[in-house]
User: Fold this.
Amino acid sequence: MGTRGEQTGYTEDVTELRSPGPDSPGAGPGPSAGPAARPGPGAPPLSLRAEQVAQTRAALIAAGRRLFGEQGFAATSVDDLARAARVTTGALYHHFPTKTALFETVFEAVHGELMAASASAAGGASDEVDALARGFDAFLDAVLEPDVQRILVTDAPAVLGLARFTELDERYAVSAIVAALRAADDAGRLHADDPETIARLLLGALVRGSMLIAGSADPAATRDSVGRAVRALLAGFAPGPGE
Assistant:
């Protein structure tokens, strides 16, 4: 089934078995396909070899995003991933030493999608506290999507381990929440004397809330309940009369 030991003969990247068509995984916009496949503005053009390597990696990430989201980590084999990306298992192992390593990259890509959605939602806020609430609401809305829920909530803590899951979760979210708390504090709309601690507590509430949504018989109703509770937590930091 495509174990690492079976692929020890591969010492370099193996490009796609055939060029992906427009509907193939990795052929269109994906969580990491764009940045992986093309250099940024002003950067020197990639060599043909570098382009092939980048395209292979992007195809694997796109395949992982789709299969992990549809089937879950346990039900997705290395052979499934290689087949969906139209590469050999040797090429997969060249880019990712284990299936877990590919899953971690997919987790980071999905996390980035949610951060972008939260930032976009916050952009239409009426004030700094509303921006926080809208950002949190966007995160909770995304958890209702089955593929996001399966990757971020159901599988990630078990596949990555709690310590690594928490590390990655905080790496991308805490700084954004801290910045928003500081903005609200500066505007006099919240008291946030220790924004780093408050940000971690709020993020923990969101993570636990997302688990409640995932395990609920009525996810939409639970999402609304969690959203109200998170807004109540934010309201608890509001300044009192005369402050």
About this structure: Residues 1-37 have pLDDT under 50 and may be disordered. DSSP finds ten helices and no strands in the chain.
